[in-house]
């Protein structure tokens, strides 16, 4: 994208400024500023909007302020939140009734493929294009511009996202048609949570025999079995557990366990629809909350 002028870029909006969404939006805004453009942002919590606004982004009062956008990224918690944004909730209008014909909505949230396909069909009825573009790389990757976007879209839709997001990402990957991006995302998260359960049980085994986490991680680093992500997870969890009660652990780690359970449920649902048994993933689903809470 570097070197293109703002005339070649559509007007872009971004909704959802949480743990991942805020650094995603900030990095995207920084790359747009370099080309003389700006980003419209919205979240129902004012604090992250103020932070983006201080960097030059346009803070919106609601969904109707996105009516002029040709591309809107959505990064909210779950399927219900996406549904409410698209169709409206309470007195707020939905994106599908606000955006002009030809606009594109990119769903970055980890949701079900069924809902992606349903929303895409509903958008098409209004002349709007809805694609899935989940990401991997976490908040650090979003901040550093090293996320991988997994895009499920037509070739034209993919080219638009690659042009707009390319400078804010390590890679914008075309997974295939609509729904393909979320398949890759769920498979990726499946591997992530399986790794967390594995390192949790490995730690239990070494500690039961008088050895330490540092020894396990050292060996795992040497042979490449323990990834940086696994090391951060288990080290941070152990540090928290040393100074936290069970109630504190539930408050701090419980929300992350809930997201993991949601993603694994989505993966298992997709596996059932695909007639592909995932016996190990079912076990990971049963263990994942205890893994996060160190139970």
UniProtKB/TrEMBL annotation:
The active site is at residue 185. GO terms for molecular function: NADP binding; oxidoreductase activity. The keyword Hydrolase does not apply. Residues 11-176 form the 6-phosphogluconate dehydrogenase NADP-binding domain. InterPro entries: 6-PGluconate_DH-like_C_sf, 6PGD_dom2, 6PGDH_NADP-bd, HIBADH-related, NAD(P)-bd_dom_sf. Keywords: Oxidoreductase. PANTHER family: 3-HYDROXYISOBUTYRATE DEHYDROGENASE-LIKE 1, MITOCHONDRIAL-RELATED. This is 3-hydroxyisobutyrate dehydrogenase. It comes from Sinobacterium caligoides.
